[in-house]
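Deviation from plan, reported transparently: glutamine complex.
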Amino acid sequence: MKTPLPDYLVHVIDACDTDNSGRLADYIPELANANPNRLALALSTVDGEVYSVGDDEIEFTIQSMSKPFTYAYALQKLGIDAVLDKVGVEPSGEAFNQISLGNDRRPKNPMINSGAITTHSLISIKEGLQGAEILREFMSELAGRELRFDDAVYQSEVKTAYRNLSIGYMLRTVGILESDPVDIVNDYIRQCSILVTVKDLVRMGSVLANGGVDPKTGKRLLNRAVVRQVLSVMMSCGMYDAAGDWLTTVGIPAKSGVAGGILGVLPGQVSIAAFSPKLDEHGNSVRGIEILERLSRDMGLHLMEGTSSAQTIVQSHYLTGKNASLSVYVLRGVLKFTEAEMLLRTLQCEPVNKNTIVIDLSQISLIHDVGKRMFLEGIDRLIDDGHTLLLVDPEQRLDHARTHKDRILHVYQNLEDLIEKHKEL
Ligand code: GLN
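Because the crystal trials were delayed, the predicted structure below was used instead.
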């Protein structure tokens, strides 16, 4: 059997291929030379499987889709508060290149140019490397390959960067930028000229979808709190003055770029990238929007559509041992608030003082902080009721198996060994 997913993706781009509306960005002269017919789509699952169709090998400049990654890098290096001191998180309702500040004299958010130039300025020069080069290396790590700059697009934008320079001078005037605005704006423009394909974008996005861990290498590249911050801002501000429309129709945190790319990231599920150079009046790819709208509708990807909880946590429960006095719970899935509440409600039915309770966590894929706290609290209460607790937790994810009352739990590598040892009970 061949998975039908690639055929489905081809079907989606074919359906959008007929729409020829929109215009190429021409305020960056080099972008006006792009082939307007290009069309590509890629999707990465949260475990790193990439599907792609159309012009998926064609490189184009990342432009504003670099902004969330610059923001992520700044948050990771400086901490959320230090970045918030300089850039807000409020949707502006304005065009991406509006020359504006919030009432508190900070740029309104990091997804519009004033905010993005500011976050760029926070990336301090390291070992003589400029911000754009540091960011190129960072994005290359996320993409899993060496990315490069498009010098022609860079030169072309630098020559006509009057608007971004105005923004830079305004930011310098109010003290948000602390050094020469021309250098910062030029280096920000270089950041925008990094070349990517839709396949690179979905790999970069899959790190965000996967809570900051690269699903291909298992390496943590960003903290969970940083990822949450970035995706929140993408959701509220990523599509500029079309953000509300996007939230209601597509409902996927996203960022677009004037070369025609759109990257959408649905936490815990997928990242999707589309590329088609013709833009609407907001500077977002016309066919890119159509593609994401369609995928969101067909695949039920709208963020508000439902919870990712599988609504099950206890895969099986049975009694075993000599006098059926081992009560075994095998758990499966993700242990967050919803599932922890369900589990504790089930454990509540254990009769006081009776069984030895065995809980097998080996098939739990993620234990969230709140899940761990609630679980350990439940364990203390079971012990208070007179139960003996035995755990199977080969990956030792329970803080050295100490409960809140500082009881040390018996932990086993696998369920079979545990049952074998205790079958005489
Ligand atoms: N380099 C472009 C600019 O600063 C990026 C804008 C965009 O992609 N929306 O104007």
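Residues 369-384 form the longest helix (16 residues). We consider this an acceptable substitute for the interim report.
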